[in-house]
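Anyone up for a design puzzle?
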């Protein structure tokens, strides 16, 4: 802000600008959280405008901001780059901290920058070797931003759902056609649970890249689980948005086990629910029973009882992450 202070001093009360243009790079930190530069920087500048008797309610542009996939905190993880870049746009919209955002940048720099963080900001691969496996190939950030813009471009309100000191992010978006969108996910490594009473029969749920499915509620209630670097878009015509108890309960969400260790996950279902779950695993085996451990990574289980125990065995190498995905259907086949 020192440069802006010098400009304001030189103006001596005159207004010689139409917008305030900032470059609020976060040096590889996540977009959200207390002290986020995406909120602090424009707030600090507005205080300066007031100090020098300028109108603080002028348009603010983030004319250059973004995440390089070569930051040490991202470490060539393009999924993380896509998630953080998209969340940067949403956080800025939720905080109302800028009117216009220009992501830096569209095309990756050519090979002279390939080994530096400067070469990894683009959402499209370069046309120069060796910086590109495929010239002009869209990176995952491009796909994620395209879906985000497709979802929220015609909104009439964009509001935060959670304070800065939580480990989850959420935005409630009202569209001009009257429909509703929830954009939710986990800020950090810990998986987060989201339980909402939306008062409607079904919703459309999309992942960060636009893969969509229809999800049916139980008495208008829904449960969603968000893992690190995942974004969920829940769309529909909500009668209300209220947090509620979990529709389905799991005994575990995040935990550590040794390689070659048996572990259980218990599923609790609402009274009277009749259905099944498709079980998909990675770096784990599904155990059918003690005498006949299966070596499959996919199975179907009946969960019509009030509580059902699923059994697994961890496999792989030390520090590998194992995942268990449960897709639940009622007996009519509704997800």
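Challenge accepted. My sequence:
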């Amino acid at each position: 802000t020192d440069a802006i202070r010098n400009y304001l001093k030189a103006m001596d009360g005159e207004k010689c600008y139409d917008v305030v243009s900032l470059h609020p790079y976060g040096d590889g930190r996540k977009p959200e959280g207390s002290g986020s530069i995406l909120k602090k920087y424009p707030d600090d500048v507005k205080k300066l405008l007031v100090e020098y008797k300028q109108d603080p309610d002028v348009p603010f542009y983030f004319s250059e901001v973004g995440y390089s996939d070569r930051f040490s905190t991202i470490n060539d993880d393009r999924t993380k780059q896509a998630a953080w870049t998209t969340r940067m746009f949403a956080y800025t919209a939720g905080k109302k901290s800028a009117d216009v955002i220009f992501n830096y940048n569209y095309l990756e720099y050519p090979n002279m920058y390939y080994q530096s963080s400067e070469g990894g900001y683009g959402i499209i691969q370069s046309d120069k070797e060796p910086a590109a496996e495929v010239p002009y190939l869209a990176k995952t950030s491009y796909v994620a931003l395209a879906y985000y813009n497709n979802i929220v471009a015609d909104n009439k309100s964009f509001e935060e759902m959670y304070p800065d000191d939580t480990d989850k992010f959420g935005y409630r978006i009202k569209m001009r056609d009257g429909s509703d969108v929830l954009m939710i996910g986990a800020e950090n490594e810990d998986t987060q649970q989201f339980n909402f009473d939306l008062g409607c029969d079904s919703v459309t749920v999309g992942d960060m890249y636009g893969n969509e499915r229809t999800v049916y509620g139980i008495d208008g209630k829904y449960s969603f689980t968000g893992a690190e670097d995942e974004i969920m878009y829940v769309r529909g015509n909500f009668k209300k948005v209220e947090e509620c108890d979990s529709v389905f309960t799991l005994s575990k969400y995040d935990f550590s086990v040794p390689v070659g260790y048996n572990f259980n996950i218990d599923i609790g279902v609402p009274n009277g629910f009749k259905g099944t779950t498709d079980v998909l695993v990675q770096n784990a085996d599904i155990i059918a029973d003690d005498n006949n451990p299966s070596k499959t990574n996919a199975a179907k289980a009946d969960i019509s009882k009030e509580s059902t125990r699923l059994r697994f065995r961890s496999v792989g190498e030390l520090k590998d992450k194992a995942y268990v995905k449960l897709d639940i259907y009622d007996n009519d086949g509704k997800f």
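A detail worth pointing out: The first strand starts at residue 20 and ends at 22.
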